[in-house]
Amino acid sequence: GPVDLALLPVGGWGPTLGKGHLDPPRAAVVARLVQAGLAVPIHYGTLWPIGFDAVRPRLFFGPGAEFVHHAVREGVVAVELHPGDELGESSAGFGSPGIHGV
Q1: Which of 3, 8, 49, 66 is 20 to 30 A (C-alpha) from 59?
Q2: How many domains does the chain have?
Q3: Does residue 92 contact residue 53 with C-beta atoms inside 8 Å?
Q4: Which domain holds residue 27?
Q5: Using CA atoms, how far apart are residues 48 and 60, in angstroms rounded to an integer?
Q6: DSSP 9-77
Q7: Which pTM does this prediction carry?
Q8: Which InterPro entries match (predicted)?
C-alpha cells in the first residue's frame, strides 16, 4: 500500500553516482510508485572532499531542490529540509507538512 513518508537518497558522495544509485528524477518516480504521502530527499551534499562544493556547487547543493521539482511533476508532495529544520505533522497529516526552523 501507500507509504506515509519516503526518505529518498538523491545523490552520492562525489561528482558521479555509482550504479544503482538514485538521482533526483529517478527518486521522484520511486516516490510516485510507492505512493508517498510526503517525500523528503536525503543523502546529498555530504562527505565531499573539502572545497569541492565551491568547484561544483550544483552537485553539492542542487539535488534536493531538483528532487522536489521532479516530485511535484510526478504528483508527489515533497519538501527539502535543511539542517535545523523540523517536519511537523499538521492536522491534515503528512500531505500538508509544517516546516519549522530551529
Answers
A1: 3
A2: 1
A3: no
A4: 5-101
A5: 8
A6: E---SSSSPPTTPPPHHHHHHHHHHTT-SEEEEES-S-SPPTTHHHHSHHHHHHHHHHHHHHHHHTT--
A7: 0.75
A8: RibonucZ/Hydroxyglut_hydro (IPR036866)
Between CA 75 and CA 93 the distance in angstroms is 17
* Radius of gyration of the chain measured on its C-alpha atoms: 14
Q: Could you tell me if 38 and 32 are in contact, meaning their C-beta atoms sit under 8 angstroms apart?
A: no
Nearest to residue 53, comparing CAs of 95, 15, 92, 100?
15
Cell 510508485 locates to 33
Q: How far apart are CA 24 and CA 14, in angstroms?
A: 15
